Amino acid sequence: MLQPNRDRFYRQVVRNSFGTVVTSVAEVLLAGGPQTVKAITKAVPNVTGTQIRKSLLALMQHNIVQLNLGDESKPNTYHLHEEMIHYRICHPDYIVHISNKYGKEAKYMITEFCKHGKLSRQKLVENTTRHLLMEEYTIEERPEDDSKHSDAVVQAFKKLVKEQYIRKADTLTNKFETVSVSSKKKVGMEEVKAIPTKKRKRKTTVEVEKQSVTYVKSWEQGMFQTYDDEDADKIFWQLHDQKFMFELRNHELVDYVRRRTKFDTRRAKNDTKSSSKIDKTCLNIAECMLSKYPISGVKEQPKLYVNVIREMVNQKRDVKLSFEEILKKIKHLNTLSVFVKEKKGTAGVKGRGDLNAYLIDIDGILTQIQLQHACSVVEHEFGEWGARIFRLLHNMKGLLFEQIADMATIPRKNAQELLYKMMRKKYVRLQEVPRDSARTPTKTMHFWTVPFQDVGKELIDSFYFCWTNLNIRCGHEALKAKSVLEKLAKQSYLPPGEKEIASRWEKANLKLRVSMSNVARLIRLFRDYR
Q: How many Å apart are CA 501 and CA 51, to the nearest integer?
């Protein structure tokens, strides 16, 4: 199936980072699937084999292209990993998230990963320390001993590894896979056996090095919790994109809970000062439960009882909330369709009666957020009546034309026109159900419905189109101010006319970048959060 807007979007993302030669190689892999170097060389004109190999290495450095090892009968082939192209437009959000959470050392570290793809720890520490010194000192004031800054960078690196924001890089023989552990199985501590050193001849015993008993975490231990100073140059690291998407999705869910749990603080009806207050307890409950959920979607979401949620919230807020207060908030969230009640049990405090296990309805919340954005798009295109029909058909599928007009309180003539206009745009679908085998038109019933998955695909396609146009406009604005920006990089003073051009470019670039970030968020919402 041809998707011109998606392919155009992929080309723009790759061209921004790698240039035209690498983009031409990526286009061949996008159009033809897995290809050998020989096939790529034939498909790309006016490009040498050396340039193609360097382009493939650059794309492999960022995991955009992966190598399929062949054998004697089958040559090595390269294929494009489209998911990594989508992750690239989220890099500004990665940097902002880490900067707010861990500070500038971690921010520069993530920036280096976004720029270079895979890095050894030693090279990462050197580059990050250089950025920190350039920010704090001039060239003349830069100290000779930078151990203080490098130590801070190493501590930030270990923290990011522990929190799983970065992981060991993939190799040709070892691919990273998120390990799925059953929720019923306890992930405890396993004892590490002593390592045998050397087996001597003519003896049945094995000499063993004296080693103190240590413990390691069994879940994803090999990818995250192990690193050694001696192997700083041998092991390469990269971003753990699934962890970042997990965090960004949780922020989206928490924002939804914040909007739903706002309440009016006006004391009287005649009070003209309208203000709202956020229920922090509900927010803390949602944050604590989301933090316990697995990064991978393969593992089952844990179902938590009220007493467990109470302990988590009290530990987070450093306060003591009663069982009844937590239960009241959970029931409130359950009425808002944020929680799903699973099963009855007897866990908890004695005398409380039967308790229920709860989990957050992630798919339901994401569907509601998607529906809000889809309704806003329909309202912008077809007005308030169109949005009313769209919401009605989404909630009550399979309605007749007369039922839609009556339930939406819209005149039948206007409702009919809107339905056919929306059907042309693929927002609604018409289904014919004949009453007899002859399929007589007068005896055929016509039911209207909303194919929400197809609507989501159409919206993603429009988001691709929008992001690509914003990116082209951003490049056009930079091209108009190119001479001024080059002069500004060499000297700090500019004449008043050129200073105004630089200021105008800065404002336009900021607006375009913010718009691109908002469109990237919508692409994640409709495509990557499931």
A: 37
Burial of 420 (0-12, 13-18, 19+ CB in 10 A): exposed
Contact criterion met (CB below 8 Å) for 427 and 390? yes
If DSSP states are collapsed to H, E and C, what string results for 315-356?
Answer: HHHCCCCCHHHHHHHHHHHHHCCCEEEEEEECCCCCCCCCEE
**pTM as predicted:** 0.81
Residue for token pair 């080693």: 211
DSSP 390-404: HHHHHHS-SB-HHHH
Which pair of tokens denotes residue 166?
């970065």
Q: Tokens 């439960």 map to which residue?
A: 289
Report d(CA 467, CA 5) in Å as an integer. Answer: 10
Q: Residue 345: which pLDDT band, with cuts at 50, 70 and 90?
A: low
What would the DSSP string read from start to end of 413-429?
Answer: HHHHHHHHHHHHTTSSE
The rounded distance, in Å, linking the Cα atoms of 394 and 445 is: 19
The stretch 478-499 carries a mean pLDDT of: 85
pLDDT at 1 over 70: no
pLDDT > 70: percent of the chain: 82
Number of Cβ within 10 Å of residue 86's Cβ equals: 19
- CB-CB contact of 356 with 344 (8 Å): yes
Closest CA to 122 of 291, 292, 259, 236: 236
**By three-state DSSP, how is residue 518 classified?**
helix
Give the max Cα distance, the chain.
99
Please check whether residue 431 is in contact with residue 444, taking contact to mean a CB–CB distance below 8 angstroms. Answer: no
For the chain, the C-alpha Rg in angstroms (whole number) is: 29
User: What rounded mean pLDDT belongs to the chain?
Assistant: 81
Query: Which string of DSSP letters, residue by residue, matches 446-475?
Result: EEEE--HHHHHHHHHHHHHHHHHHHHHHHH
* Residue 401 and residue 429 in contact, taking contact as beta carbons nearer than 8 Å: no
Q: What is the pLDDT of residue 263?
A: 64
Nearest to 514 by CA among 60, 46, 92: 92
Please say whether the beta carbons of 87 and 65 come within 8 A: no
Predicted confidence (pLDDT) per residue in 352-374, tens digit: 444 678 888 888 899 999 999 99
Neighbours of 455 (CB within 10 A): 23
